[in-house]
């Protein structure tokens, strides 16, 4: 191994572990510091006995061959499942396929609603052709333009309010093109089978991949220090020193950081100028609590994701784990295993309520779903605090200002990943930013901040992810 390089990595999520893997391939031994007791970050698989939880419903989908190859290399082929993507919106007790199919919209929600939706849709398409604009609209304007007011209000307005906890008029829409597919006027079968309709999924949930990476790194003597929250990052005379909450320190020639960008700036020494600290302090996150509920009864829900936009539900999205992998539940168990996702802000009451109080909300949602009568065999609560970097209209400029400050003053500090760059990235882009950051460390002329800036990259037809 090369000895003169001595990199430090903050975070053992997909970005941190990918950076470590790449460094090891280049014969450099990094040290990894992870705040929590596990590897995998948001893409971990919390486990109790034979019960496993995927906190987000992690589809392994990418348009990058580099990442697809890397994923394939991380687990043996028999540990990957091919899962058919089937999502629906649950509206007025009816499952409406998602991505939206025009003929469902006209036929499934009643004739009057269908005709109104169609008229609104055609009008908004016509108007956007007559008056095209280059300006990036708010999410509400984008949604109304894409779907027409009626369908936007039924499917997206309430959902986005519930999940992003903000008025859609105040949210930027740059992520929407990537995440939300337009209405299709042909059914999926008429469109032919598309690679996107099937995704890869590790048999034991997303954390299986990251545990495999950790095991492979251990073979090179790289073992993440768990429960090691990095409390300060100091740069003096070309040397970086990080200090853990327990007072221990470690020094190196560079830092790869996947900790939230806001906290990186808050804990950076020498202290950045006031305006940089103020901008960083304005970067916000949304949290998610995933409640995994194993119902003894068998409910036939033919989808892996069910979005619940209506006010009758407190939950925002329901994962149907049985459609992801039966190995998330104990062998031969035959009930219905669901993951209910509750979106909240770290400052909201919901974030701090006890499991017991949250359990009452879950029971109410299960009753609304029509599954209130079933006994519960097992229940797990998984809290992810920094789940979503919030995409307000100031985000892009704020992040660019911080990026430029860091580039000028600390070129050997490499923010990477979803929270590290405060960018709404999935695993593939978090991993690519890590690979580009390591390449930059070795002198390549690449810009990790350019990963996932293509507004037309259509990812998944998902609303969140
Ligand atoms: C609900 C939900 C659904 C999702 N669905 C998908 C999907 O379908 N497909 C997909 O590919 N991706 C999905 N994602 C996104 C995916 O989880 C992230 O893109 C990915 O985990 C980002 O990796 P990361 O390493 O950048 O960040 P993280 O996973 O957040 O890892 C960062 C790590 O850094 C640690 N850390 C933070 N601060 C410190 C500190 N001060 N000191 C030490 N350690 C620290 C954290 O504990 C964490 O382990 C989803 C995410 C959510 C929340």
UniProtKB/TrEMBL annotation:
GO cellular component: cytosol
InterPro entries found in the cross-reference section: Amino_oxidase (IPR002937), FAD/NAD-bd_sf (IPR036188)
Domain Amine oxidase: 15-384
GO molecular function: flavin adenine dinucleotide binding; oxidoreductase activity; UDP-galactopyranose mutase activity
Protein name: Amine oxidase domain-containing protein
């Amino acid at each position: 191994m090369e000895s003169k390089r001595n990199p430090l990595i903050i975070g053992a999520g997909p970005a941190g572990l990918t950076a470590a893997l790449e460094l090891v391939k280049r014969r450099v031994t990094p040290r990894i510091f992870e705040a929590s007791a596990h590897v995998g970050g948001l893409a971990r698989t919390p486990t109790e006995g034979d019960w496993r939880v995927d906190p987000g419903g992690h589809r392994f989908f990418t348009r990058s061959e580099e990442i697809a190859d890397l994923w394939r290399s991380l687990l043996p082929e028999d540990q990957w499942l091919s899962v058919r993507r089937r999502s629906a919106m649950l509206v007025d007790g009816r499952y409406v396929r998602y991505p939206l199919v025009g003929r469902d919209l006209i036929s499934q929600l009643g004739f009057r609603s269908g005709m109104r939706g169609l008229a609104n849709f055609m009008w908004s398409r016509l108007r956007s052709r007559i008056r095209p604009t280059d300006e990036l609209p708010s999410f509400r304007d984008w949604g109304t333009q894409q779907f027409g007011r009626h369908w936007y209000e039924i499917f997206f307005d309430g959902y986005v309010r519930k999940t992003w906890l903000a008025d859609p008029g105040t949210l930027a829409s740059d992520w929407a093109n990537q995440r939300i597919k337009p209405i299709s006027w042909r059914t999926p079968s008429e469109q032919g089978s598309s690679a996107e309709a099937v995704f890869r999924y590790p048999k034991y949930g997303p954390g299986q991949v990251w545990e495999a990476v950790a095991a492979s790194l251990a073979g090179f003597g790289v073992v993440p220090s768990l429960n090691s929250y990095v409390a300060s990052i100091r740069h003096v005379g070309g040397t970086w020193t990080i200090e853990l909450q327990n007072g221990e320190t470690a020094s190196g020639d560079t830092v790869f950081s996947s900790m939230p960008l806001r906290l990186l700036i808050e804990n950076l020494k020498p202290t950045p100028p006031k305006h940089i600290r103020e901008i960083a302090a304005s970067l916000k996150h949304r949290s998610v609590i995933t409640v995994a509920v194993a119902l003894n009864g068998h409910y036939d829900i033919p989808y892996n994701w069910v979005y619940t936009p209506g006010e009758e539900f407190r939950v925002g999205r329901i994962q149907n784990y049985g459609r992801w992998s039966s190995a998330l539940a104990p062998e031969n168990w035959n009930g219905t295993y669901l993951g209910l996702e509750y979106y909240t802000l770290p400052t909201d009451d919901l974030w701090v309520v006890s499991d017991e109080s949250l359990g009452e909300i879950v029971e109410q949602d299960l009753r609304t779903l029509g599954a209130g009568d079933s006994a519960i065999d097992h229940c797990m609560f998984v809290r992810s605090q920094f789940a979503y970097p919030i995409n307000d209209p100031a985000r892009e400029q704020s992040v660019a200002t911080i990026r430029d400050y860091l580039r000028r003053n600390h070129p050997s500090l490499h923010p990477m990943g979803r929270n590290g760059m405060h960018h709404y990235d999935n695993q593939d882009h978090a991993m690519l930013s890590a690979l580009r950051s390591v390449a930059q460390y070795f002198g390549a002329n690449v810009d990790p901040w350019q990963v996932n800036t293509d507004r037309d990259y259509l990812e998944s037809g998902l609303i969140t992810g």
